[in-house]
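We emphasize that the prediction below concerns an isolated chain of 74 residues; any contacts that depend on oligomerization or on bound cofactors are therefore not represented. The input was used exactly as deposited, without trimming of termini.
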Amino acid sequence: MLRPSYEDILEKMNEATGEEKFNSKYSVVIAVSKRAREIILENDTSTDKIVKPVSKAIKDVFTQKIVVRREATE
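Result of the prediction step, given as a token string:
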């Protein structure tokens, strides 16, 4: 089971923006996958190799180390 849960992560994402802009699990998946790709591309050698990029991305989004922004659509 995913810990923290999708709902917990979604709540933190909305808390960071101050509004309820994100309302689906899809938003969480996209945010975490983009962050995981950034971590892989950074190839950060200072982190422990045991921690997987997706796990680190989930932690970064949940702890609000990164702020997820939603692009305006027309």
